[in-house]
Amino acid sequence: GTPASMSRFRGALVAAVLGDCVGGEFEGAEEVPMETVLQHLNGLEDETKGNCVLEYSDDTAMTRCVVQSLLNRSGYDQQDLARRFAKEYSASPGRGYGSGVIQVLKKLASPQLVDVYQPARDQFNGRGSFGNGGAMRAAPFALAFPNLPDVKRFACLGAMLTHSCSLGYNGAVLQAMAVHLSLQGALCLPQQFISRLITEMEEVEGEEEALRDVVFLLKEAEKPFCERLHRVRDLMDRNKVSIEEVISELGNGIAALHSVPTAIFCVLHCLQPRDYLPESYGGLERTIAYSLALGGDTDTIACMAGAIAGAHYGVEAVPQRWMRCCEGAEDADMNAARLHALYHQTSQGS
Ligand code: R7I
Ligand code: MG
Ligand code: MG
């Protein structure tokens, strides 16, 4: 499709929901054989099963808050978004939220709260969370703002409502940038895509705040996301890469640092057919299946990879039968069209 086409917006938001819903099955599993993944996905296509419903988790619940807030406020409004997070959590607390972030969401519900970023700063002895909860909901920022500086700035602020550690919010910046570039068609040149992300993250991680946080967090490189993106590039260049190597080089965990570069790798790796994936699968299906086979934080990695891949392949690549099984997929499709309008309105206005 053409850059920033409606199909790409719909693909991004719908595939993110799919990744979350189908990935929920394996979240936290240490090893997931590809056979088991394919069985799970084939099961979705079995019409005799009637309407199976896979529920979405916190990943989609919070993404929906971001989408609704951006649409209702025609841009980023921290008070409004904070209120929506708090309200959503109190209405459905059982969506599988991270154990730390629950504290933040409870504090955000307080009418006396003056600074909406303060509860996030209080997390983990004042260091803030490095979880991937900011990154998992970052895609809508790329679908609302046409200019990269806006995407970076608002993805960062939107993440800081719950994740004040640079390793948390910079994961959100990276994820939003990947969706932004994919929406422009940048995945047609994978080498340039990864190089561009590295260049952008060099700048993001060069900022003083980021460096200060990292000093606390032992054993990481000075620019941790850049270092991981270099590993992504090395793995991309190799013919054969085992699942074990991907996990040990990039991670599959709940930290943004151990999941956002992994999700980006899943998308890049699945641009081509792979012999351990069905020939009948297109790139989007390959990406989701591969993300699940890594195990670990499967709903979140598949959700993030889904958003990036969906923005590349477009909504036509999303299997109808998968979509019908996933709670919230129809809603995501409709909201994507509204974000498309906002994005193009913003691009004319500025
Ligand atoms: O990041 P967050 O919203 O969790 C998102 C994940 C996704 O996989 C969702 O699908 C859902 O399952 O949860 O929630 P947080 O509670 O902020 O962070 C997640 C976890 O990371 C925490 O519960 C901690 O175990 C860990 N963590 C930390 N541990 C020690 N020190 C995050 N930051 C720290 C830290 O600074
Ligand atoms: Mg989840
Ligand atoms: Mg998860």
Automatic annotation (TrEMBL):
GO biological process terms, semicolon-separated: DNA repair; peptidyl-serine ADP-deribosylation
The entry's cellular-component GO terms read:
chromosome; mitochondrial matrix; nucleus
Q: What Enzyme Commission number(s) appear in the record?
A: 3.2.1.143
Q: Which Pfam families match?
A: ADP_ribosyl_GH
Q: Where does Mg(2+) bind?
A: S57, D58, D59, D297, D299, T300
Question: A single Gene Ontology molecular function, please?
Answer: poly(ADP-ribose) glycohydrolase activity
The protein's required cofactor(s) are namely: Mg(2+)
Known SUPFAM superfamilies for this protein?
ADP-ribosylglycohydrolase
Q: Which InterPro entries match?
A: ADP-ribosylglycohydrolase, Ribosyl_crysJ1, Ribosyl_crysJ1_sf
Cofactor, free-text remark: Binds 2 magnesium ions per subunit.
Protein name, entry field:
ADP-ribosylhydrolase ARH3
Organism, as annotated? Xiphophorus couchianus
